[in-house]
Structure formats: structure tokens, C-alpha cells
Amino acid sequence: MGGAALLLAALACSTCSTDDPPFVAGPMEACAEAGDEDGNGAADCDDPACADTPVCKPVCGDGVKAGDEQCDDGQGAVGDSCDSTCRPASITYVKASNTDSGDFFGRSIALSADGSTLAIGALGEASAATGVGGDQVDNRAYGAGAVYVFTRSGGTWAQEAYVKASNSERYDYFGASLALSANGSTLAVGATGEASAFRGDQMDNSASEAGAVYVFMRHRGTWAQQAYVKAPSIDRSDAFGSRVALSSDGATLAVTAVRESSAATGVNGDSNDNSGWSSGAGYIFTLAGTTWTRKAYLKASNAEAFDFLGRGLALSGDGATVVFGTGYERSAATGRDGDQLDNSQPGAGAAYVFGRSGITWRQRAYVKATNTWTGDLFGNDLALSADGSTLAVGASSEDSGAVGVGGDQANDRTVGAGAVYVYR
What we know:
mainly beta, four-stranded antiparallel sheet
């Protein structure tokens, strides 16, 4: 509706009070009293008494959305949901509802597929509250951690939920990792410091830093914890929940434990063997009804101590392809499926691709950089397309001075420059 039409509608409203926008006392009353001054048969923006009304001459920041304004939140601040020109902000500045020193808000983030739900982790947050919507100002549990869920309506972001573990305690680091389903209504949260040694007893603290994962679901705008997930073999210092990922429908959950210590290799090996200290592991869980069930225990095909498998994690949209990465694997192999047993390049890194056929998981590829070198940390960061056909792998300490795409990989004169490798 144009300014003149909106003005006429406001003036004709028989039930509006002068407190209702766009009917603002003062200019609007003067306009109504002056009536048709230019003789065109209507009181409109061409009449002198009406020209300064909020409808005809909108004032950005007055809280009245009028004229060509797309929003007006009553202020001209930059960084909120409505910018200083009364357009939806392209940049929104987001903070916790209980900001405090050492909270590390933003340590982990997750976004729904349509970008309208945002989850933010603060692993240092210190409230001892439990569940959803608890006491945010209680700071008795430093490092307990929290997650904040924000939603966007139109151009406006608002906090929807303040989320805590059901057994919140000091140094649990709830929020160390996050994942959201495509629709933003299923949230998985890793707590690498959680200390329970039993799946049925959340208050048991006999396994320091064993780790746990919590699943929350949103129904009609209300969040509630749906599950408390532990590794099948619980050990101290495993850091279960180091990384988490959800399939698009939220029914497949991938979890890593970078300090898990089994020397097993491949799929569903002996998880009770602790002779491979901090070799790392991955787990697949699926949801049926309200119950999460472990479907696979995944290890590198060349698992060794201090590989820390699971520093990187990516899951396809259908949950049928998962990739685990570690920047600390030591093989000098290059490309795909090279010699895994050569340990001459410490910290070179690798990625492992697993796929599911029916209900059976197997390793499909052992992936290395094309210019493998010591300390490149290939595999600590991963991304996978929704259909699982394209994999991107980061190597944050790669040393080539090449620029752009397809440059000279053998040029190692720029220490710590970093690189990304894309595989199909």
C-alpha cells in the first residue's frame, strides 16, 4: 500500500486510537482536521498539512514502519536486525543473554538449512542450571557450558532458548560441539568433559572427561531434552562428543571421541582394547521412535596412538556417508588409498570416508593431500556436500606459497599458509 493509500486508511479508521501506528497524535490530527487542501477530493500526501505525517514522510528510527521503510525498530543502531536505513540488516551482532567473562560464546555454532535457526555454544559458561530456560545468573559451575538458540522471523533475530545439560556440572564443557538438523528442530550438543561412567546414571562422576552427547528437540517453539547419549565403552578422558553431526532429518547422529584409545581398526572392532592411546574413534547412532541406537563403531584402517581421529567430522544429508579426519596421522602417502603404514611424516594428516549400504558400514576411502608433508594438519577440518559426492579437506598448516586454484603445490616457502583440497 502506498503512502497516500495508507494515509487515507489511517484517517478513515473509525476504531483506531491516536496511539495506534500509523496514526500518530499531532501531525496526523492536523492532517485529519485540514482535510482536502489541494481540491483533489481526498486528504493525501499532496496536502501541506499531511506532508509531514509519518506515512508521507517516514522517520527512520521512530518505531513506526511507514512509507518505503522495510522495518523500523525504534533505533538507528548498526548491527541489530534493522539497520540505520530501516532495511533488514545484512549483518546481525549476536550475544548471549547472560554475557560473562570466560564464557567463550561462539566456540561452536550450527545453522539450519534455511538459515532461520542458529545454535551457539559457550563451553565456559558457568551457570549450574539444568534443562531449558533455567537460572542464567548462577555462576557456581565454571565451565559447565551452555547453548543459546536464536531464530529469525523476517529480518529480526531473537533468542528462543537457553539450553543446559540435564546434569550440568563444572568443567563438563557442554557446547564444545553442536549440530542442527536441516529444519533446525533437532539439536545435538557435545560435552567433552562430562564424567559419568554409566549410561543410566548421569550423576556418576567416576570417569573424568569421558564425555557425553545430549539431543534436544523443538516442538511448537518449545525445546526439551530428548536423549542423553554415551559411548558404548565408557572410559576416562575419551572426550566423547568432540565433534557431532546430524543428518538432514535429524535421525542419524555421528559422534567422535578424539582421545578414545582402542587399537581396533575398521568397523565394529574391540572397543575395550585400550592399547592405542588417543587413536580416536567415531560412532553412528540412529533414532527409531524415541530411542537412539548405536549402529557402528568406526576406527581408522591404520589406527595408531595419538592420531586423534575425529578432529574433523562431516556427514551427508541422508546420513549414509561419514568422513572422519585427523591432522595427526603420519603417513607420507598422497592422494587416495596410498600406503597407510608409512609413518615418516608426523602431523601430515588424513581423512577416512565410510559409507553405509543397507545397514552395513565399511571404509570406502583413505584420503591424503596431493602434496603430503610433515605438520600440514590435513583433515582437522572437513565439509561434505549434502549428497556426499564432494568432500573438502582443510590443511591449516600447509606451506605452499601458491595462490588461487591449481597452483604450485611443491613450493614450501610460506610456512603455515594453509590449503584446502576438494575431492569428488
